[in-house]
Amino acid sequence: MPPALFGAIVLLVGIPAFARPQSAPTCAGAPSVAEPFASSLADSGRVYGGAFTPDGATLYYFWKTSSDVRSEDYRIMRARRENSWRSPQFVDLGGRYSDMYPVITADGRQIVFSSYRPAPGDTATKPNASLWMSRLEGDSFSSPEFLRLANLLGSYHSQTAITADGRLQFRRTTADWKSTEDLVARWNGVSFDRPTIVPEVARFRGWNSSMYVWGGRPGPADGIALLEVSKLDSATRRRGPSELWVTLRSGNAWSEPRPLEAGVNDPHAFNNFAFFSPDGCELFFVRGFSRFYHVATQAAIGAHR
User: In the prediction, which pLDDT does 20 show?
Assistant: First the structure.
């Protein structure tokens, strides 16, 4: 499934850094209502999810090369902040392949991404996106290596994220597109191990008959879950635009999910591809596949915690 069809995300996020008094940053400057972020990066219908480097000075995201809705050709972009955000540049990962969903490992030394490049041993007649990793070498990246343990040949791998403890979380969809699961893999010092299911995501699938939950993404720590949700039309059961919702954990129980606040959800556009600043103070997301928005994490969660 192309990224544009991944409508809503259940973001499994944790207690942000600002919620931990012993090391709480000031979170100054984060807007209290969602507003456009780095407008110079906006590109109508062609902007998709991103991730910051640990120092927050570089943003990686992926961009559609064509405005054709049927196109499956994507490239990873890199934008640097020098007082303001500079014009993005293509990331050369070797070959003209469709590369998507970039994330940077916690040490800032590797980029993990999903790609349509040929996977070793894959005999499927239909191309599928697999997980790859490349190591940062100066200002360039090494030749990508196939994440053999994390991948399942013939499946579509997407929605990558790095958890607070350095694990790789991602979504895997079967070749027939009938089944999707969210998985997480630990870093073993060299690569990522064989993944296991994320139980927090699984508990929300089928949670509400009038909603469709797409999957999950991790946040700064444990205890908060952002939900990517599409409302279902009562007559046709068609999925509407995606919204970002939240649920909070108390002990072993999770609260009833509710929409994020502070203007995060526009009912007329897809609101998805959420990610956080390295300190957890700000929530970032993409609206309408056209531009990035940001808002203070605490404002988005609201006063219900």
Answer: 38
The secondary structure of the chain in percent helix, strand, coil, rounded to multiples of 5, reads 5, 45, 50
Residue where the block lists tokens 């349509």 = 116
Residue with tokens 């191309």: 127
Query: 240-258 pLDDT, tens per residue?
Result: 999 999 888 888 888 888 9
Measured in residues, the chain has a length of 305
Structure tokens that stand for 207 in this block: 């949670």
Give the position of tokens 């972009």. 77
Whether 276 contacts 219, CB under 8 Å: yes
From CA 85, how far away is CA 77, in angstroms rounded?
Answer: 13
Q: Pull the structure tokens for residue 125.
A: 């007649």
Tens-digit pLDDT profile for residues 221-231: 677 778 889 99
The identity of residue 181, as a single letter, is E
d(Cα 132, Cα 109) in Å, to the nearest integer?
14
Centre a 10 Å sphere on the Cβ of residue 92 and count the other Cβ atoms it contains: 12
